[in-house]
Design goal:
Shape: globular
Low-confidence stretches: 12-26, 230-253, 255-281
Mean pLDDT: 76
Order of helices and strands: HHHHHHHHHHEEH
Radius of gyration: 19 Å
Oligomer: single chain
Structural class: mainly alpha
Strand content: under 5%
Number of strands: 2
Largest sheet: 2 strands, antiparallel
Number of helices: 11
Helix content: 40-55%
Length: 287
């Protein structure tokens, strides 16, 4: 990273290339402008937010269904833009804010992870339950789309496998359909919205039902190359978090994530302190 000498002490701990994020919150941003130039093509925001959810939130019900406070979500996204995400994440007590930031990031992309060019073929393959065809089409997606899609799918499988979250594959498919799949074109007609909304959920559900090894393999080759080049660790817990305890995990790029040990006698109101009606009473109806 290049910076002025007087700014060196204020540089973020994690080196974020200058082309990873824009300088302001802008909707309809191209994914290629939000990912590192080398290694796995996954946004810093997506990687670190998924880490936080898996490390601190897998005992919380309604992940990705309950909305976080909007102003807190915007503040978190701005912290990423300024390279101050680690300290900001460490202060967040409402895990639903982190979940909402992931969904907001995906919604703000100029083009969904399922590209417009491949939209018709992928939705047809999912609707006809042709898994082989679906895997071939996903493999043909741009590299940055594949990497981001793979890490999100593996993460959602982890969320669905935890009974405490009360989020099934079907529920997560409904939450992430519009964000991951989107519509067939930018100017989709009102009459087509209802039909395509159902297809969005079908596609995500089909993706979640694909073999886990398929998604692992999508990331493994690139990750092995990164390790051979002695690149710095991709994932790490945010600083100032309690001593972590290793647990069994999905064999994925998030596999090295460790979960924060639960303190004895935790309050029954949840692991993140007292919950306010504003943060937990609202249901996120915007996938």
């Amino acid at each position: 990273m290049t910076c002025h000498e007087i700014c060196e002490s204020k540089a973020p701990l994690v080196c974020v290339p200058c082309n990873v994020t824009p300088r302001s919150v802008v909707k309809h941003t191209e994914l290629c402008k939000l990912v590192p130039a080398e290694g796995l093509k996954i946004s810093i925001l997506v990687r670190k937010c998924l880490i936080e959810v898996e490390a601190r939130g897998l005992n919380e019900p309604g992940l990705y269904r309950i909305a976080g406070v909007d102003r807190d979500v915007k503040a978190l996204k701005n912290a990423f833009l300024k390279g101050k995400e680690d300290s900001h994440l460490a202060k967040i007590r409402d895990i639903y804010v982190v979940c909402s930031a992931v969904k907001s990031f995906l919604r703000d992309l100029q083009e969904p992870l399922i590209t417009l060019l491949s939209w018709d073929d992928i939705t047809q393959a999912a609707a006809s339950e042709d898994d082989k065809r679906l895997m071939d089409l996903v493999s043909d997606l741009p590299e940055l789309n594949k990497h981001t899609l793979s890490i999100i799918i593996l993460h959602l499988l982890r969320v669905a496998s935890c009974e405490a979250t009360r989020m099934s594959v079907i529920s997560l498919s409904r939450m992430f359909g519009p964000a991951i799949v989107g519509y067939s074109r930018a100017d989709v007609s009102a009459m087509s919205i209802l039909r395509e909304t159902r297809l969005q959920s079908t596609v995500v559900q089909s993706l979640l039902n694909l073999p886990m090894g398929f998604w692992d393999n999508m990331l493994q080759a690139k990750e092995e190359t990164r390790q051979q080049n002695l690149a710095p660790p991709l994932l790490a817990l945010t600083p100032k978090t309690p001593e972590p305890t290793p647990v069994s995990h999905l064999s994925s790029i998030l596999g090295s994530v460790e979960v924060v040990a639960r303190k004895k006698g935790a309050a029954s109101s949840g692991r993140f302190g007292k919950t306010t009606p504003t943060s937990r009473g609202m249901v996120d109806t915007t996938p």
